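Exercise 3.2. Students should predict the tertiary structure of the chain below and write it as structure tokens, then compare their answer with the key that follows.

Predict this chain's 3D structure.
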Amino acid sequence: MSVILFVDDDKNILDGLRRRLRSVRSGWELHFAHDAESALAKAAEMEPDVVVSDMRMPGTDGAELLTMMQEKHPHSARIILSGFAEEEAILRTVGPAHQYLAKPCDDQMLVETIENALDLRNLLTNPDLRALVGGIDALASPPITYTNLVKALENPLTSNEQLTAIVASDIALTAEILKLTNSAYFAVSQKITSVSQAIRMIGVDTLKALALFIGLFRSFDGPKPAVTRMMQLCKRSQQLGVVATLIAEQEKLPKEVISVMAAVGMLSHTGSLILYAYRANEMAEVIKRVETEDIPINVAERDQFGAAHPEIGAYLLGLWGFPSAMVQTVAYHHRPQDTRHTEMNALSAIYIAQHLAREVAIESRTGQAPESRIDLEYLERLGKADRLPVWREIAHVVEEKYREMDA
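Answer key:
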């Protein structure tokens, strides 16, 4: 039985929810609270799976309530349901709220949002990791990203393209800005998956406000090796997105797929960023095994944590309300064979790109091509095994361009 807690100071709204939802989902155990204090008391008794709170309430408001829920019940999915849309209030919910729904919200959207949050528990079954991920408000960014962004925002002549380049080079910025722009507060009918489009939508002022209000682009002050790994990860993820985009273009995938590949490439390692930021010592052991035993990092992570970065990142992105197709792509980018598809898609492009990017990087560094880990039977299933040489050449070109930029 899934436990759902609704919080609103308007009795009529709670009565309406009670009446309508009980007939819609018999498998839900519904609880209702009229203020933050009673909500916290109820949560202490029955540990909710999902908390849905109004924003504007007398005394402790929704943002404050969800902040306390985040501390006391980090495993609970946290959703703001409100018609209160002033910018300052919205930004205060960016950390503690996983998703935002604007009033009036139809029952179908509310039910689907709650169901999606509940379904994520099957993706990440380890309760300790669920609590870790559920308690995260904003991901830490490498110091260089914060510095570059502040300098850019201080310059009135900075273009959208320059801001996009900074944001797109960082996993945390990509995740958080896409999270914010896809919230219901912006009243967008379609999901925003382009970083450039997201920045144009929120504007420079809101970008500045994000930095001021929640320290989104705060420096990571963990162990120096972890900082170095995180910076390398951001670069590799960006490169992965470029390779995947070019492969998608080469295979003439739909424009809507091509347009999201760069963002998916960055977000595919969201889980790695979480592990580096919050489990740095254990990740050091993971990296040691990867380097000494030459095993895939997701295998070493699963041995160490009971789960790997694909499902950890996908769990967070799912909580934040990213499109289900994007969440699935992140979750399965190391094992697309486990999904049911027989044609080339975004997941295929990311899977292929990550392997080829790794192989050509090793070859460029050592002069020897490593043994490929690409599943040829999977490519045969897609009818694309003969395209591997073309894709490998794309990866080589991208690797050379990145090396030129670093020179």
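Discussion points: The two ends are 58 Å apart (CA to CA). The chain has two domains: 2-123, 144-405.
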